[in-house]
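MODEL INPUT / OUTPUT PAIR
PAIR INDEX: 1
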Amino acid sequence: MAMDWKGVMPAITTKFTQDDELDLQMFEHNLKAQLDAGIHGIVLGGTLGEASTLTEKEKQTLTQHTIKVINGKIPVLVNISEQSTKAAIAAAKQAETDGADALMMLPPMRYKSCDTETVEYFKEVASNTALPIMIYNNPIDYKIEVTLDMFEELLQTCPNIEAVKESTRDVTNITRIKNRFGDRLKILTGVDTLALESLLLGADGWVAGLVCAFPKETVAIYELQKAGRIQEALDIYRWFLPLLELDINPKLVQNIKLAEVYTGLGTEYVRKPRLPLFGTERANVIQIIEDSLRHRPLVPEYK
């Protein structure tokens, strides 16, 4: 499938059973709700997907099962977040073998590589796969920034590097990217609390988190702003913001999984060392979710 870098792409959560096995039934239930809402792609094995805790076999199972359920309707992206270039190349090749349509790639994990090392890492992986690649640029959480000069070098030598998941928290970076690269580098915002701002500044899409629990509202914001119905998009976005802030938190996985429980799209089970929310923290998140559900807006017709 040709990769079209636009629209809403959930960084979908991985569902587990109480016995810490993959819960493919609940995963599929959520996936179908995302498809019904009109998402444009799906991202597997990101931070929200608890990728660092998954075995290679589990990653393959999730990829293959997702491709089967999606059945060619939208692209399936697999996240690559590895500690070594060798492991990243192997993961990219495995994703291609499993049938993924594209990759999302983080810089090397744990080791804080310099600019030259980071560029070489991306180059080597890109040269070992035919899949299109989106670079995940999140220096706040992962301590390595992919600068515009680094993108310049990558775009000159790696035609399959096509997009950036822009998570620097600086929305002016969207204009800088557009000014420098035009449409050569597609932009998907990766910060839920800056999503509408980013889209209005020219981002092509949104790799979203709270979409896992609220797919209809998330897609509506994207589609309404695209149609020029800004006030309607803004009304939903303002309602959504307290929930979206659950995504920019160290316990974003637990937060969003708890929200999924409230909307009937998931369970709270996480893989240790994570634990479900407890105490005051849990009570605070529940209050945000319940308050939001009491005032949940009607999504206007836009299709």
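PAIR INDEX: 2
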Amino acid sequence: MLRHVTAGVDGSAESLSAAHWAAREALRRGAPLRIVHAWRSRAHPAASVPVDRTRQEWAERTLDQAVASVRAAHPGLRIAGRLVSGPATTGLLSMAGDAELLVLGSRGLTGVAGFLLGSVSQQVVARSSQPVVLVRAGETSTDEHLPAVDGVSPEEIPVSPYRDVVLGLDTRRPCDELIEFAFTSARRCGGPLHVVHAFRAPSAAAPEGGQNPTSGPGLLAAHEHSVVAALRPWCEKFPEVSVTETVAEGRAATELVRASARAALVVVGRRTRDSRFGIRIGPVAHAVLHHCGCPVAVVPHA
């Protein structure tokens, strides 16, 4: 069965940006695009629904406008629109089942409560069996490329270099699905892969009269070695992908957000297990979604 890239839309600017990002990704993958809008029949329509329209008519209009916008920008892409009746989270998850990935818009909410807390997007990210990419409003194809060098006209460089694909790597639990997604993404767009690994030094003091091998330069070298070892088979599998590594002591989320300033996409993982507090996306993924301005892919893994 032919698999899709699926985008969820709700009439917002961020969901339209997500649909256009999904269209570009579908072209890179050679896959069709499915644009989905989930709606619920209610006794009293929402305030956003005009008084002369039913909720279903407004849902159809929302979907049609998104499909028309994406089709006008990508006339050669196979695009199908799909209305789904029922709760948005349930509908989007059902559509993600046979998709290669699901793309959603993100308002980038901030505050004490955290990013997207309680939103449909966070619920889908936490429960989807497929990778989910979150895209903020205003994201365009230009943002995926490095700016042109001053004094160089676009005619001299028809296609400016693609920005980094950034991968957050935990060498304690390297995950094949996560690493392969990042390498494949970089290969599709012809851009470099920037692998980021951060670690925390143990608090134990160095033994008297000797150097503690678990701190300082020795610890850094050990982590650098573990990164190289984890990536070696993937570099051999994807020799066309240019790979750089950043290994630093500190918080993983901080290093990933710093790397995202030059990135087209940040790739992080989410473990597919429930906690006693419910399904969680993990602290690193949550922080990256909160602070990164570029699209973020959350890849579920065992």
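PAIR 2 NOTE: The first strand starts at residue 4 and ends at 8.
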